[in-house]
Amino acid sequence: MKTVDIARRAVRGLRNAKARTILTSLAIAVGAFTITVSLAAGEGARQYADKLIGSNVNPSALFIVKDKSIFEGGGRQAGLQVYDQNIGTTSTGLTLKQMTQADVDILKARDDIENVVPTYAPTVRYMQFGDNDKKFTGQLAAYDPTILSEAAFGSLPVMGKDIDDTQAVVPESFATVLVDQKVIKSPQELVGKTITMTAVSSKSLASGEQLAQAYATGGQAAVEALTVPETKEFTFMVSALTKKSATALASTSAIQIPASEARAISEYTTLGTDGYQKYVGATALVKDGNDPAAVKDKLLQKEFYAQTAEDLQGVVFAVVNTLQGIVLGFGIVALIASVFGIINTQYISVLERTREIGLMKALGMRGKSVSRLFQFEAAWIGFLGGIIGTIIAVAAGLALNPWLTEKLGIGEGNYILIFQPIPIIIMIVALMLIAMLAGWFPARKAAKLDPIEALRTE
User: Fold this and answer.
1) Can you tell me the distance from the alpha carbon of 456 to that of 458, in angstroms, rounded to the nearest whole number?
2) Residue 133 contacts by C-beta under 8 Å, 6 or more apart in sequence?
3) Are 153 and 268 in the same domain?
4) pTM confidence score
5) Are residues 254 and 171 in the same domain?
């Protein structure tokens, strides 16, 4: 019997048991729906991450450190350790091996990278905006030209260009605080205003011996004079307010100032301490004609650990793939349950059609063809279940995409569910093969039926 004829007869057999066929197909549709949605979510998340990193991070950028645990999500364990003047604690509480100025100089001397800028951590006692006397505290950071920022008000340089030495970029959220404190009337009013930052020199920290000597020579007045902090003011003009954007990676929790001024503040406040000219890491650009991955390997030979834009993308993809795998797991569980449904359906079909099977074999149909008939029926059930699940998933996904975009805040024009035809086709074919495998046992039973005994069955 020809394969086409067997396939047509399989369809007629399923029509005779429509209710059972539909119910079994719906069981498969649950798994198909889950798998289709997980594939679409994974693809959507990967495309969004690719767009986010590709459009915001310079592909030639490197982040270089001396302690690889930074890239592994942790730091050194607390506890008793051998003293190392280059090991320090960051503002987030991590104990890390820091980069020294000598390390920075080594990087600057290399011929395969350029624009080496340490990650300065400037701190000031307080800051004032415009002519207002109110004092505020907030985080500072060096402006990173390798990452694209998005301006709410004012203007920002293109990616790769630094801001001027007298400029500062302020998060839009800071402007809201200033409006609440009646320093300004509206956020856009902050653009063009000055920020005066007052830093305290580390030299103001007198030792006990110095205090004792001052008291012995000049009494209480000398001690008070020695404890008066030495301060210095740094003034900037607000050039732009950065907004929180779904398509920008720049930090929105710190006022960004030029790297040269960030260095000046950092060195002024740490001079004479263990933190002087110590950095978590440094950013750099790979020179034209060099492969970032190859430069990364060369840096590793000199005990420098680097992360490229592609590495950052890989980290995001790893998270997406893990989440996608979890959702896929639920779909596979649903498919396993539906496999038993197919086996049960086909066994019942064999029992109900015993006389029909006997008649087909008596008329010359071979056992192999009988087996293929039931396997084809199972394949049609898998196909129907896959189509139903896919249609529902695609329809629901397309309808929910705008709502999901708004709720997740991933930016207009970006969708978290992206359906691609090839993975869906592969999934449906796989469902058909799984269904055929599930129908193999009932098909084998039908193929082995004795035609005479089958015809005697009531």
Assistant:
1) 6
2) none
3) yes
4) 0.62
5) yes
Domain count, the chain: 2
**3 state DSSP class of 322:** helix
Examine the domain organization and report whether 264 and 334 are in the same domain. no
Instruction: Give start and end residues of each alpha helix (H) in 160-282.
Output: 172-180, 208-227, 259-270
Identify whether 412 is part of a domain: yes
Same domain membership, residue 271 and residue 150:
yes
298, two tokens: 């060369």
Whether 431 and 34 have beta carbons less than 8 Å apart is answered as no
Q: How far is residue 245's CA from residue 242's CA, in Å, rounded to a whole number?
A: 9
Residues 383 and 438 in one domain: yes
32 & 177 share domain: no
For β-strands 126-129 and 194-200, DSSP reports them as antiparallel
Residue 85 falls inside a structural domain:
no
Per-residue model confidence as pLDDT tens digits over 290-314 = 999 999 999 999 999 998 888 877 7
pLDDT digits (tens, 9 = 90+) for 101-146: 999 999 999 999 998 999 898 999 999 999 999 999 999 999 988 7
Please identify, among 279, 308, 325, the residue that sits at the C-terminal boundary of a domain: 279
Tell me the residue length of the chain: 458
HEC string of 47-107 equals HHHHHHHHHHECCCEEEEECCHHHCCCCCECCCCCCCCCCEEECCCCCEEECEEHHHHHHH
C-beta of residue 331 within 8 angstroms of C-beta of residue 38: yes
Q: What crossing angle do the helices spanning 440-447 and 421-438 adopt, rounded to 10°? A: 40
Range of the domain at 386: 3-53+316-449
The answer to whether 96 and 280 are in contact (CB under 8 A) is yes
Distance CA 352, CA 373 (A): 15
| 154-192 as b/e: b if 16+ CB within 10 A | bebbebeebbeeebbbbbbebbeebeeeebbeebebbbe
Identify the burial level of 225 via C-beta atoms within 10 angstroms of its C-beta, where 0-12 means exposed, 13-18 middle and 19 or more buried.
exposed
Q: Say how far apart CA 282 and CA 284 lie, in whole Å.
A: 7
